[in-house]
Design a protein that fits this description.
single chain, alpha+beta, Lipocalin, 4-stranded mixed β-sheet, 14% helix
């Protein structure tokens, strides 16, 4: 496996791209041909895919997620501006943000504003309930995933309702957001303001992980809704070249979600191979059109799918 695969993640700073330096050489290794997936490996992958689909289906049913058609992919808070400025410690600010350390300089509105809408690039839209600024701040605090006991909390000096581009299971979408102003900096934070936005069940790591190709980063679906083209980070060259790899994909489907498993087929000739990452694609034909179903991975995390026309 290429080391870079584990370092690639969806950029959750809306409008989403991949935060990766593709083509960066991270080392040189003796490239050995990987054994094809055995029938036992494939059976275990199918079991894990079915387990992920069952978890997604149960969570979606419980949340009645189909109402707005909006499934958030990635982080719920966006940074507006890229320079904290001279009046604030940018290192502390980033760590405080990551730890969910915020204080409001004055009470924020607790009343929910009128409904808003989510609008996708294909022109479709859905009305959605909007949360209050106070609730958005509570959500932003709860999203902190790290600890920083020595950090100085960021002070919120104001909030205004706006829209921002968030990544969804159906690609980029304009959605309601509360934009928070911060003391001593021009940087602002946009927090998703859609009530009850669905992100799927809690992340779960499969107990066992057999041989498997690179994880799906994003995907597109054709106009028919039947063909998914998934993007992975893998070997730069195809399998007919030294160190090359070909990729095939298989879909495991339910009524509300799809798992795509990517298999790699390496060139069998031993060679000294650089661990270079490149964007590669693989296509898979679905049993029925994608529709409002969501693409997820083996951990039941949603993956962005953009429609092509």
């Amino acid at each position: 496996m290429y080391e870079l695969w584990g370092k690639i993640e969806m950029a959750r700073m809306r409008g989403v791209g991949l935060l990766a330096i593709v083509g960066l050489v991270v080392g040189v290794s003796a490239c050995r041909s990987a054994a094809p997936a055995s029938s036992a490996d494939v059976a275990e992958l199918h079991r894990q895919a079915q387990a992920a689909l069952a978890r997604w289906d149960a969570a979606a049913a419980k949340a009645a997620a189909g109402g707005s058609g909006f499934v958030l992919v990635g982080e719920s808070t966006l940074m507006v501006g890229d320079d904290w400025g001279p009046n604030i410690d940018g290192g502390n600010a980033k760590m405080a943000w990551g730890a969910g350390l915020f204080v409001a300089a004055s009470p924020l509105p607790s009343e929910a504003p009128p409904d808003g809408s989510v609008e996708w690039q294909d022109g479709t839209s859905h009305a959605v309930p909007v949360i209050s600024a106070q609730q958005a701040l509570t959500d932003m605090k709860a999203a902190g995933v790290s600890r920083c006991p020595d950090c100085t909390p960021l002070q919120i000096t104001g909030a205004r309702l706006t829209t921002a581009t968030f990544q969804s299971s159906r690609g980029p979408a304009q959605a309601p957001a509360w934009e928070f102003s911060l003391k001593d900096t021009d940087v602002k934070l946009d927090q998703i303001a859609v009530e009850g936005q669905f992100t799927g069940p809690p992340v779960w790591d499969p107990v066992t992980q057999p041989w498997v190709g690179p994880p799906v980063q994003s995907a597109t679906v054709d106009a028919s809704g039947m063909t998914l083209t998934v993007t992975v980070v893998g070997a730069p060259d195809p399998g007919d070249k030294p160190c090359g790899v070909d990729y095939t994909a298989e879909a495991v489907e339910s009524d509300s979600a799809i798992v795509v498993i990517v298999y790699e087929h390496r060139n069998a000739i031993p060679a000294a191979c650089s661990d270079v990452g490149a964007f590669r694609t693989a296509q898979v034909t679905l049993a029925k059109p994608l529709g409002n179903r969501v693409l997820i991975d083996l951990r039941a995390e949603p993956i962005s799918v953009t429609a092509t026309h």
